[in-house]
Task: inverse folding
């Protein structure tokens, strides 16, 4: 079975696991888990297998640029969500992603380290903006989500990963890298959290995703530095381990059962 075929199975499985964790431990933990390179890592591995290790290592620079664009989309959502509806806030976030990606990849074209220096404070700003504030909208509590909820989440996540996987090999290493960190699991989680539990829950997912993005950034830096220099299996194992180490402290700190 090809890696793309495997991702058709793996992606909905991951979406189900993250959604279940969000229901058990809250939207913030769901965001943290969805911020891990759960789908961007398979895309990078796919690029290395099909296009070569050098291609995937170069694509990692584009992925750091793309992660910056994703972070800008989180910033736009954090500002827009309390003031606009579900569709408007998502549209503004998508527009911010496209504009930031075009600016970073098409105009600035930063080095790996400059892109990293841009990403880090932007991620920290998202975390700060999405912290709960006194007097914010209380979350809506539903005893049980509707029956269509989980199938819709799985379908949305799978459709996104198929789109990214289908386009990436034809766009070159730079644009392929920019597409790889698109938050395939995070955005469906954000939308459903907003629809079911309110703005506060959606912002919790965004905050968790931004915290998880520190791990994604570490993953891509490791891939660029290690791939082609050591065995690819060891390179990806090290990148995933470093990524997990960046997120684990937040995950342990926030893994609290939701109130009944």
Result:
């Amino acid at each position: 079975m090809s890696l793309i075929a495997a991702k058709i199975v793996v992606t909905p499985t991951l979406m189900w696991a993250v959604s279940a964790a969000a229901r058990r431990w809250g939207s913030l933990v769901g965001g943290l888990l969805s911020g891990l390179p759960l789908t961007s890592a398979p895309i990078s591995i796919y690029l290395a297998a099909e296009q070569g290790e050098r291609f995937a290592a170069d694509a990692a620079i584009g992925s750091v640029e793309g992660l910056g664009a994703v972070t800008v989309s989180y910033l736009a959502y954090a500002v827009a969500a309390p003031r606009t509806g579900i569709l408007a806030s998502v549209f503004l976030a998508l527009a911010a992603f496209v504009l930031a990606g075009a600016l970073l990849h098409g105009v600035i074209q930063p080095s790996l380290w400059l892109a990293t220096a841009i990403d880090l404070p932007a991620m920290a700003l998202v975390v700060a903006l999405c912290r709960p504030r006194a007097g914010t909208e209380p979350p809506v509590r539903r005893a049980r989500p509707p029956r269509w909820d989980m199938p819709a989440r799985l379908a949305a996540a799978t459709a996104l990963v198929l789109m990214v996987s289908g386009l990436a090999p034809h766009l070159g290493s730079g644009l392929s890298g920019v597409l790889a960190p698109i938050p395939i699991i995070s955005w469906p989680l954000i939308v459903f959290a907003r629809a079911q539990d309110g703005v506060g829950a959606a912002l919790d997912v965004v905050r968790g995703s931004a915290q998880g993005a520190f791990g994604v950034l570490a993953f891509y830096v490791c891939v660029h530095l290690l791939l082609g220099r050591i065995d690819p299996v060891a390179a990806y194992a090290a990148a995933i381990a470093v990524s997990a180490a960046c997120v684990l402290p937040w995950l342990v700190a926030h893994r609290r059962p939701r109130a009944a």
